[in-house]
């Protein structure tokens, strides 16, 4: 043996070194490169161990990337935002040109399209498109919980010519698909459809990739959907509460504010005007000879007069002015803001709005007039009830003076 000959370490020590190296690898610690130029079986083993370490590191990076994607999904709150994030980021791990999301209907009978984004042609499947689940291949996908690959959608359509959804996706330009079930617990909630314009785009690796994050993705989507359902439920409750509040504040026959609501509005204006001194008008109106309408034409005709009278008043008032039914055929108008010198002109315009053309009582024209009593506020130290009483006194004067006229209460002096 020459002096230059390099002696290999004994087999036992090399094996011990490799074992220690593997233990370090299993513990997750960084391991050094195994150096060996020999071609004996132990050196081959060293090379295989190196390749194993590289594969493990690569898989760790892939898992980190997958869970980073899921974490970014969790940053979304609304469902559309979560699904948009999937479309914008999942291209790193799964190829696609289109993603669609569909949910199982509450009765479990159909799969209904909810959302889609596409880089293919014009979409042929939009929100609300539904397919029955019974006996379908999608039902089998949901039951198995396993992603399904179809790498030639045109061939699949030829074999299943009655598949309307496949036909629509092919018309959009899809040529292969990865159908991924969304399962929360053991309950299927829907499906994510990944579609590529390329044939043969999907492999077992993509199926495995989705399996690794399927539970988390399903949960994030379901949480976002439940959150949106809660928001929608709260919105409907608010709308119903508003509707009930509106109904409680309005006269059911005429739609005008009822007595309580119009008096509440007057009280608010009186309180505000005490500080701002902004003028407003308060008007009591009574339909003249209303009893004759009921006596000669019946109460249905009287109701029709009340409704038309309210309509004419509302059409003649400005935005922000209010009309309320004070009682029977008597109405209270709140005009804000309104200066004293404009009150007379406004009252005459309102009077003419009633009297200028007859009312239609079942095809018979009937001349209707009204009397108006008004006052301009604010009046220092006067309550809303006091102002209404003074407007009512002015109305009484207008009635006694011949009706179909306007009477304005004199300023307090």
TrEMBL record:
InterPro entries: Diguanylate_Cyclase, GAF, GAF-like_dom_sf, GGDEF_dom, Nucleotide_cyclase, Rev_trsase/Diguanyl_cyclase. Keywords: Coiled coil. SUPFAM superfamilies: GAF domain-like, Nucleotide cyclase. It holds the Pfam family GGDEF. The keyword Coiled coil applies. Residues 278-411 form the GGDEF domain. One of its GO terms (molecular function) is diguanylate cyclase activity. Transmembrane segments: none annotated. Residues 42-69 form a coiled coil. It catalyses: 2 GTP = 3',3'-c-di-GMP + 2 diphosphate. Its EC number is 2.7.7.65. The keyword Transport does not apply. This is diguanylate cyclase. It comes from Rhodoplanes serenus. The lineage of its organism: Bacteria, Pseudomonadati, Pseudomonadota, Alphaproteobacteria, Hyphomicrobiales. The gene is ydaM_2.
């Amino acid at each position: 043996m020459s002096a230059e000959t390099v002696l290999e370490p004994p087999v036992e020590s090399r094996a011990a070194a490799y074992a220690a190296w593997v233990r370090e690898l299993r513990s997750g610690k960084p391991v050094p490169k195994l150096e060996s130029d020999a071609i004996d079986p132990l050196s081959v083993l060293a090379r295989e161990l190196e390749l194993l370490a590289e594969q493990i590191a690569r898989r760790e990076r892939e898992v980190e990337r997958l869970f980073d994607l899921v974490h970014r999904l969790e940053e979304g709150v609304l469902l559309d935002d979560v699904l948009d994030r999937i479309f914008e980021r999942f291209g790193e791990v799964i190829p696609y040109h289109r993603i669609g999301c569909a949910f199982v209907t509450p009765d479990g009978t159909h799969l209904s399209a909810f959302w889609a984004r596409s880089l293919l042609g014009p979409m042929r499947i939009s929100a609300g498109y539904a397919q029955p689940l019974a006996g379908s291949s999608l039902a089998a996908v949901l039951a198995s919980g396993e992603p399904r690959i179809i790498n030639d959608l045109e061939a699949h359509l030829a074999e299943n010519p009655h598949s309307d959804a496949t036909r629509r996706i092919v018309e959009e330009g899809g040529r292969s698909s990865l159908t991924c079930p969304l399962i929360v617990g053991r309950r299927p909630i829907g499906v994510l459809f990944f579609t590529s314009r390329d044939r043969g785009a999907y492999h077992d690796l993509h199926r495995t990739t989705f399996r690794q994050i399927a539970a988390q993705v399903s949960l994030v989507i379901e949480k976002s959907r439940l959150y949106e359902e809660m928001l929608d439920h709260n919105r409907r409750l608010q709308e119903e509460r508003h509707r009930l509040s509106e109904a409680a504040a309005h006269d059911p026959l005429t739609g005008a504010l009822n007595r309580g609501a119009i008096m509440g509005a007057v009280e608010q204006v009186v309180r505000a005007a005490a500080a701002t001194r902004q003028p407003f008008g308060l008007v009591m109106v009574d339909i003249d000879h209303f009893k004759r309408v009921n006596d000669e034409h019946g109460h249905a005709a009287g109701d029709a007069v009340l409704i038309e009278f309210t309509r004419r008043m509302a059409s003649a008032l400005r935005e922000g002015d209010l009309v309320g039914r004070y009682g029977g055929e008597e109405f209270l108008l709140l005009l804000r803001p309104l200066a004293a010198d404009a009150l007379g002109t406004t009252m005459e315009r309102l009077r003419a709005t009633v009297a200028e053309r007859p009312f239609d009582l079942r095809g018979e024209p009937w001349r209707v007039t009204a009397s108006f009593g008004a006052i301009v506020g604010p009046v220092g130290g006067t309550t809303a009830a006091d102002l209404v009483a003074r407007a009512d006194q002015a109305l009484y004067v207008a009635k006694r003076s011949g009706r179909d006229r306007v009477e304005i209460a004199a300023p307090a002096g």
